[in-house]
Design a protein that fits this description.
The protein is an alpha/beta fold. Helices cover about 40% and strands about 15% of the residues. The chain is built from 5 helices and 4 strands, in the order βαβαβαβαα. Strands 2-1-3-4 form a 4-stranded parallel beta sheet, sandwiched between helices. Helix 3 links the parallel strand 3 and strand 4. Helix 1 packs across helix 4 and helix 4 runs antiparallel to helix 5. It starts with about 20 loop residues before the first strand and ends in a 7-residue tail after the last helix.
Length: about 150
Amino acid sequence: MSDGTVSDGAVGDEEKGERVVGIVLVSHSAQVAASVAELAQGLAGGGTGVPVAPAGGTEGGGLGTSAELIAAAAAAVDRGAGVAVLTDLGSAVLTVKALLAEGDELPADTRLVDAPFVEGAVAAVVTASTGADLAAVEAAAAEAYAYRKV
């Protein structure tokens, strides 16, 4: 998955027709995005049925962000209950904000979530796996800022 594409293994059970919040993880690195997606799904129980897609790096495999990869990932995880987008660094935020401003590049009910990348991704996937709505997924991911490590 290091080429930045959306893996079939990273997408949940769309054939069941379930409305579930999709998660897109935007990183400047394809490997980081894919690894965080794998970690979040694994910690959520693996077979949660939550569609998660990494959108990392550029189309050419370099470091950076790609509006095209983000839009493709969001379309791939959209199951009709909204899409939560988490980002790693500032320019990834700017890329997602630009896509949201255009209005037709991302699925309806796509939200940029202000949350720590790793902890927020885990919280978002775990919460989405319960069937929670987009607002609850967003709140759980944002709440991860409060997780204390010491």
